Every structure is written in C-alpha cells, then in structure tokens.
Amino acid sequence: MRYYIIAGEASGDLHGSNLIKALIKIDAEAKIRCWGGDLMEQAGGELAKHYKEMAFMGFLEVVRNIFTIFRNIAFCKQDIRRFKPDVIIFIDFSGFNLRIAQWAKQQGFATTYYISPQVWASRAKRVQKIKAYIDHMYVILPFEKEFYARYDYHVDFVGHPLLDAIANTQLIEERAFREQNGLDPQKKLIALLPGSRKQEVKKMLSLMLSLTEGFPEYQFVIAGAPSLDASFYQPYLTNKKVGYVAHQTYTLLTHAHAALVTSGTATLETALFKVPQVVCYKGNWISFQIAKRIITLDYISLVNLIMGKEVVKELIQQDLTVPNLKKELQNILTPSNRNSILEAYDALEKKLGGPGASKKVAEQIIENL
Q1: Do the first three CATH levels of 2-160+353-368 and 167-351 match, i.e. the same topology?
Q2: What does 246-262 look like in DSSP terms, one character per residue?
Q3: By the 8 A CB rule, do 87 and 3 touch?
Q4: How confident is the model at residue 240, as a pLDDT?
Q5: Interatomic CA distance for residues 285 and 366, integer angstroms
Q6: DSSP states of 37-89
Q7: Which of 103, 171, 248, 291 is deepest in the core (most CB within 10 A)?
Q8: How many CA atoms lie within 13 A of 236 on its CB side?
Q9: Please, which pLDDT band fits residue 296 given cuts at 50, 70 and 90?
Q10: Please, which pLDDT band fits residue 219 given cuts at 50, 70 and 90?
Q11: SS3 for 212?
Q12: pLDDT per position as a tens digit, 49-105
C-alpha cells in the first residue's frame, strides 16, 4: 500500500521514522513518501520536503514566513495528488497538518492522525475540525483519551513512542563518550538542551551558559539539535569549560547528572533518562503575550502535565533570570531534592503505557485500510 506521512520537526522525524520501520515490517510492499527529516528517509521513506524548510516558531515568525508556508501547502497538495496514497498520516504539526487534512478529506483520501495536536492546551474548538477531517486518531499521552471523550470523539491511546525510541538507541559507554567528545574525564556533566530552532537556541543558550562560573566542579555540555549544523554552535564554545556533542543527546542524558532543558519533548526525554532538570522557556514578547491569553494549562512541560503536579521546576519568561536559574540548578543538585524528582519520574514512566507504540499504530492503520 501507499502511505503519505507529514511531520514538521525533529521529534516528528524521530517518531515518523519508527512508524515507517513498523509499517515496512508488516507491509513488505509499502511505498512511503514523507515530509520529515534524515531519520524518516533512512528508515525507508522517500523525502518530499525536509522539516528544516518548515520549522517556524511563534506567531511573529509564522507571519514573517507566511508566503513560504502557503507555497509549502500548495506543493503538498500537488504532491499528494501525484502520489495517490491509500492513507495520509499526520504527525503533530497541527497548523500545517489540519489545513492539509481538511483538503484531503474533501478529496476523498483516508486520513489518520498520530500524535495529537495539543488542542487540550489551547483552542479546543479545533476538536471539531479533527472530528470532521480525521478518520482515526492515535494519542500518546494518557490524559488525551479522556479529553477527547468529552467531545464525543473516540481516540486510541497507544503509549508513548519515546519509550521505543530510547530502547532502540545504541548508547556509548561513558569513558568512550567522554574521550570521543573531549569532555573532562572526572567532572559530573550538566546537559544543556536549548531547543531545536535557531531563534529559541539563541535566546536560551547564552542564559544557560552564564552559570558555568558558578558551578566549577561540573562540566556543561551542549546537546546539538539535529536540525542545526555544528557551525551554528561555534560562537558558544569559546569557553573551554563547555562541551558540545552532536547526534548524541541520548548518550549525553545517560551520563548526565542534571540538565537545563527548553520546554518541549526534551523535558520528557530527560525525565525518562532519570535526569533531574530545570525547564526553561522564554519566547518573543509579543508571541508570549498572545500565547498567554489562549493557553489554559497550569504547566508547560510534559512531565508536569502528565503527572498533574509540579515535579520539575519551570522558569517561564520573566521568571527565567540568571539568579533564578542558578538557584533552581543548585536545588536539583541537592540529594534530597534529587531523590523526590527521581521517584516521580518512576511513576511518570508507568503512566506512559509501556513500549510498542509504533507497532500498535502501524498494525491499526493497516487493519483500517
């Protein structure tokens, strides 16, 4: 069968790649065309557009790139017509995907959504669009099934694909990892995960690195995003106390003692590797003011959202200052605080439904077809 998959950022590329592998295992004749990244292409998808050409963050950034977005939408429709898929599979990336889903449904294509848009966070009216345009929805967060049930829409909870992604990643032994990346052989590591888009990394990384002098017994290590070239990080590496690794975030988290993490999927990844963290977020002022008025959540990190309480400290916008960040990093380095965070992480992992999400989704997509 023919599958058309649309993912728009690094996390979608990761989960899309595991879905492609699962589809090919079940359907040896599968033909897959996709919007995604290197991982989806390596897994066996024919790449129509790389997510690096589509990752615009925040309201102002979207407005500035609106003509590029319209061109991408037009190209996507033409490409789907040419490919003639048996099913279109949307992965998160709601602003783009819901527009394509509306058109696709009108054209008579089968539509499936894997990894729900965050309609539970803002603009819940989008549920009506999802009900109208999407034939089957597979969700990965335990509270999403109950959320959709309130709108009389059945969805299937399949567990979180990060459990599979982590289990399937080959990790490097600590000594070899340190030697390979020129890291200090003795100091404990503090991982810095400043995001995956240029504008957010620029905002976050300088702030995170301002703490290096206050914690001389630790080495701060930047996890390079797969969407950004190593050259982008060079201006931040003038301090010899700062390390950098590319395409080795999971190995870094395996050996890290603590982490400073920009909100997003990375907060959940860090928790699953059992690394105490401080969650950081600071956006464009106008974008933040708009978001503040439409987002109805008590928390921004997936860890706290899933647990329904503050497990990890969130420093957002004006609260994200050097003194506050220093204080909260010191807190998670304190043994008693670390132990309570790690206990909560164990409970979090149990809530995520166990491994096998990609396989479950692939089986149900093929069964539905």
Answers
A1: yes
A2: ES-HHHHHHHEEEEEEE
A3: yes
A4: 75
A5: 45
A6: -HHHHHHTPEEEEEGGGT---SHHHHHHTHHHHHHHHHHHHHHHHHH--SEEE
A7: 248
A8: 26
A9: low
A10: very high
A11: helix
A12: 999 877 555 555 555 667 778 899 999 999 999 999 999 999 999 889 999 999 999
The 10s digit of each residue's pLDDT in 150-181 is 999 999 999 999 998 898 889 999 999 999 99
Instruction: Write the class of the CATH domain 167-351.
Output: alpha beta
pLDDT above 60: residue 272: yes
CA–CA gap between residue 210 and residue 260 (Å, rounded): 12
| Domain 2-160+353-368 architecture | 3-Layer(aba) Sandwich (3.40)
- Is residue 32 a contact partner of residue 21, using CB atoms and an 8 Å limit? no
State how far the Cα of 148 lies from the Cα of 248, in Å rounded to an integer: 36
Helix (H) or strand (E) holding 33: strand 31-36
Predicted TM-score (pTM) of the model is 0.83
Q: How far apart are CA 63 and CA 56, in angstroms?
A: 9
Residues across the chain: 369
pLDDT at 293: 45
Question: What percentage of the chain exceeds 90 in pLDDT?
Answer: 77
Exposure class string for 135-166: b at 16+ Cβ within 10 A, else e = ebbbbbbeebbebbeeeeeebebbbbbbbbbb
User: What are the distances in angstroms from CA 118 to CA 43, 77, 94, 123?
Assistant: 27, 24, 8, 9
Q: Which helix (H) or strand (E) holds 234?
A: none
**Amino acid letter at 290?**
I
Q: What CA–CA distance (Å, rounded) separates 252 from 367? A: 39
Alpha carbon 281 to its chain's center: 14
Which residue type, as a one-letter code, is found at position 211?
L
Measured between alpha carbons, how far is 308 from 273 in angstroms, rounded to an integer? 20
- Sketch the domain layout of the chain as residue ranges: 2-160+353-368, 167-351
- Looking at residue 168, its pLDDT comes to 85
